[in-house]
Amino acid sequence: QVQLVESGGGLVQAGGSLRLSCAASGSILTINTMGWYRQAPGEQRELVATITKARSTNYADSVKGRFTISRDNAKKMVYLQMNSLKPEDTAIYYCNADVVGLTYRSRNYWGQGTQVTVSS
Protein backbone atom coordinates (compact mmCIF):
# COMPACT_ATOMS: atom_id res chain seq x y z
CA GLN A 1 0.00 0.00 0.00
CA VAL A 2 1.07 3.58 -0.70
CA GLN A 3 0.35 6.67 1.35
CA LEU A 4 0.77 10.35 0.52
CA VAL A 5 0.84 12.68 3.51
CA GLU A 6 0.72 16.45 3.08
CA SER A 7 1.87 19.05 5.57
CA GLY A 8 2.52 22.77 5.72
CA GLY A 9 -0.93 24.25 5.23
CA GLY A 10 -2.32 26.98 7.42
CA LEU A 11 -3.59 30.53 7.66
CA VAL A 12 -1.60 33.34 6.09
CA GLN A 13 -2.24 36.95 5.16
CA ALA A 14 -2.42 38.03 1.55
CA GLY A 15 1.05 38.54 0.17
CA GLY A 16 2.52 35.95 2.46
CA SER A 17 4.15 32.60 1.76
CA LEU A 18 3.65 28.96 2.64
CA ARG A 19 5.53 25.80 1.75
CA LEU A 20 3.62 22.56 1.35
CA SER A 21 5.30 19.17 1.59
CA CYS A 22 4.09 15.73 0.60
CA ALA A 23 5.79 12.50 1.64
CA ALA A 24 5.16 9.23 -0.15
CA SER A 25 5.63 5.95 1.67
CA GLY A 26 4.86 2.28 1.21
CA SER A 27 5.60 -0.32 -1.43
CA ILE A 28 7.17 1.98 -4.00
CA LEU A 29 9.53 1.06 -6.83
CA THR A 30 9.56 4.52 -8.37
CA ILE A 31 7.38 7.60 -8.68
CA ASN A 32 6.70 9.21 -12.03
CA THR A 33 4.74 12.46 -12.19
CA MET A 34 3.91 14.15 -8.88
CA GLY A 35 1.66 17.12 -8.50
CA TRP A 36 -0.46 19.45 -6.46
CA TYR A 37 -4.16 20.09 -7.01
CA ARG A 38 -6.58 22.26 -5.08
CA GLN A 39 -10.29 22.45 -4.43
CA ALA A 40 -12.07 25.53 -3.17
CA PRO A 41 -15.54 25.31 -1.56
CA GLY A 42 -18.17 24.74 -4.22
CA GLU A 43 -15.56 24.35 -6.93
CA GLN A 44 -14.09 21.43 -8.85
CA ARG A 45 -10.62 20.16 -8.06
CA GLU A 46 -8.09 21.86 -10.30
CA LEU A 47 -4.47 21.37 -11.23
CA VAL A 48 -1.96 23.67 -9.56
CA ALA A 49 1.37 22.24 -10.68
CA THR A 50 3.00 18.99 -11.75
CA ILE A 51 6.59 17.78 -11.95
CA THR A 52 7.94 14.75 -13.74
CA LYS A 53 10.64 12.44 -12.47
CA ALA A 54 13.05 14.35 -14.72
CA ARG A 55 11.83 17.56 -13.07
CA SER A 56 9.93 18.97 -16.01
CA THR A 57 7.26 21.27 -14.56
CA ASN A 58 3.82 22.50 -15.53
CA TYR A 59 1.80 25.23 -13.80
CA ALA A 60 -1.72 26.56 -13.89
CA ASP A 61 -1.77 30.06 -15.37
CA SER A 62 -3.18 31.43 -12.12
CA VAL A 63 -0.07 30.47 -10.13
CA LYS A 64 2.72 30.99 -12.66
CA GLY A 65 5.44 33.21 -11.28
CA ARG A 66 4.18 32.82 -7.70
CA PHE A 67 4.33 29.07 -6.98
CA THR A 68 7.26 26.70 -7.44
CA ILE A 69 7.01 22.92 -7.43
CA SER A 70 10.03 20.77 -6.64
CA ARG A 71 10.78 17.20 -5.64
CA ASP A 72 13.35 15.06 -3.92
CA ASN A 73 13.36 11.66 -5.61
CA ALA A 74 15.55 10.03 -2.97
CA LYS A 75 13.21 11.12 -0.16
CA LYS A 76 10.07 10.48 -2.23
CA MET A 77 8.83 13.97 -1.52
CA VAL A 78 7.26 16.80 -3.47
CA TYR A 79 7.06 20.42 -2.38
CA LEU A 80 5.06 23.49 -3.33
CA GLN A 81 6.52 26.88 -2.45
CA MET A 82 3.71 29.44 -2.57
CA ASN A 83 4.61 33.12 -2.59
CA SER A 84 2.53 36.28 -3.01
CA LEU A 85 -0.53 34.39 -1.85
CA LYS A 86 -3.96 35.77 -2.69
CA PRO A 87 -7.34 35.15 -1.05
CA GLU A 88 -8.38 33.25 -4.18
CA ASP A 89 -5.65 30.71 -3.42
CA THR A 90 -7.71 29.57 -0.44
CA ALA A 91 -8.50 25.88 -0.90
CA ILE A 92 -7.70 22.37 0.22
CA TYR A 93 -4.46 21.37 -1.48
CA TYR A 94 -4.01 17.74 -2.48
CA CYS A 95 -0.84 15.88 -3.34
CA ASN A 96 -1.00 13.45 -6.27
CA ALA A 97 1.47 10.87 -7.53
CA ASP A 98 1.80 8.21 -10.22
CA VAL A 99 3.46 5.38 -8.32
CA VAL A 100 5.00 2.23 -9.76
CA GLY A 101 4.71 -0.49 -7.14
CA LEU A 102 6.86 -3.51 -6.48
CA THR A 103 4.76 -5.48 -9.00
CA TYR A 104 5.77 -2.97 -11.69
CA ARG A 105 2.19 -1.75 -12.02
CA SER A 106 1.48 1.99 -12.04
CA ARG A 107 -1.33 3.48 -9.99
CA ASN A 108 -2.41 7.02 -9.17
CA TYR A 109 -2.67 8.09 -5.53
CA TRP A 110 -4.06 11.10 -3.65
CA GLY A 111 -3.19 12.52 -0.28
CA GLN A 112 -5.79 13.50 2.28
CA GLY A 113 -5.38 17.22 1.65
CA THR A 114 -4.15 20.21 3.63
CA GLN A 115 -6.08 23.44 4.13
CA VAL A 116 -4.60 26.72 2.92
CA THR A 117 -6.45 29.87 3.94
CA VAL A 118 -5.35 33.31 2.75
CA SER A 119 -6.92 36.26 4.52
CA SER A 120 -7.32 39.65 2.88
Care to describe what's here?
Helix content is 0%, strand content 62%. The protein has 120 residues and is mostly beta strands. A hairpin with a 4-residue loop joins strand 9 and strand 10 (106-110). The radius of gyration is 14 Å and the shape is elongated.
Spell out the key features of this protein.
120 residues, mainly beta, 11 strands, 62% strand, elongated
Mean pLDDT: 97
Classify the secondary structure makeup into a structural class.
mainly beta
The total of helices stands at 0
Which consecutive residue ranges, at least 5 long each, have pLDDT under 50? Answer: none
Largest sheet features: 7 strands, mixed
Write down the overall geometry. Answer: elongated
State the total count of DSSP E strands.
Answer: 11
Radius of gyration: 14 Å
Q: Name the helicity range.
A: under 10%
Strand content: over 45%
Written as H for each helix and E for each strand, in order along the chain, the element string is: EEEEEEEEEEE
How many angstroms separate the termini? 40 Å
Element layout with pairings:
Elements: E1 2-7, E2 10-13, E3 18-26, E4 28-39, E5 46-51, E6 57-59, E7 67-72, E8 77-82, E9 91-101, E10 106-110, E11 114-119
Parallel strand pairs: 2-11
Antiparallel strand pairs: 1-3, 3-8, 4-5, 4-9, 5-6, 7-8, 9-10, 9-11
